[in-house]
Amino acid sequence: MCEAGIVTEDKGPRGHGAHEHSDVPVVTSRSVRAPRLPGMRDAGDAWVAAPDGTRYWGRFGAAGLLVHDPDRGVLLQHRATWSHYGDTWGIPGGALHAGESAFDGACREAAEEGDVPRAAVEPIASVVLDRRVWRYTTVVARAIARFEAHALDAESHELRWVPVSEVAALPLHPGFCAAWALHRRLLTTNRLLVVDAANVVGARADGWWKDRAGATSRLLDDVDRLASLGLDAGAWRDVESSGGAGAEPASAGGDLDVTLMPRVAVVVEGQARDVGVSVADTPSPRPAPAHGRVQVVRAQASGDDALVEVVSSATGGTATREERGAAAGDAAAVDVVVVTSDRELQGRVRDEGARAVGAGWLLRMIDGATGPTAEY
Known about the structure:
This protein is an alpha/beta fold. The protein folds into two domains: 47-187, Nucleoside Triphosphate Pyrophosphohydrolase; 189-233 and 262-368, Rossmann fold (3-Layer(aba) Sandwich). It contains nine helices and 17 strands. It has helices at 102-114, 174-187, 197-201, 212-229, 233-237, 303-315, 321-324, 343-351, 359-368, and strands spanning 47-49, 55-57, 62-69, 73-79, 89-90, 93-95, 121-130, 135-143, 156-162, 189-196, 231-232, 256-260, 263-268, 288-289, 294-298, 333-339, 355-357.
């Protein structure tokens, strides 16, 4: 049922409050004709025309939310008959407001259309289709709390949790269909970035030997900023790429840009052990919240041992990535990347099923991280 294609127009005009007079038929999801654009609407609710005449919905771009719940599948929207590619299945989404991030806009639209609570989802990746004059961002997210979704307006027949293995059998919106293979791989892999703080701090000459705690605090700030912006999928893929869970495609069809939002754990030890961590935090190997999106693991003794314990807990030991990702359906593969230039430690984490990369890999991404930190 899945047909190739790329979206050229989103759902279009919205039906909220469009008909104020009793002689105008009420538009439902089964109506054939689209609702009128309301006189009072957000500035982003407008068409954008490309030089070739193609029109795109959303003056400031558009975004949609693809939520995955390992127990139930992905949350899909059965689109209204009157919408572009009506009666097909896709994801809730729509035009962005001025200055609104893709995550904010996707969550707002999902709440308006399907009663999806923002606090119940966590972004794990974004996929951007860039048409120069217009951008569509699919925010791939994981459900971190159970919720039920319901169609709240005339843009949807229904919202339904669909098992991952059954998605391709539905009549999908062509744009969503074209990217589904990429989306599926993104949402069914759990990614964890583990940072050996002492090793990375020692890899850059910023006076760390005079103030190790201060240098570690600066690293945490840098890693937190990078985590907020996301990591380039190509850089993540190229870490010891071997065709396993870590071999993420950087694009699909050459026109989709992928950014990953892995969980991040930073292992600290010695003089830097208590940086950014309150006395109430749980010691290693369980990561404890610290700098925003970053988790801090306090090594009570050997930092190397604590890091290996974090990796082993995540990967389940020495099982290969292929074995962990072999389960069908919604079972998630696990992909752990460890940042350390310590050769011996790299060998130990590889034995636990992780991939390893030197400190320079992370520092280059930190140095190249630009833009607002609140994208997600």
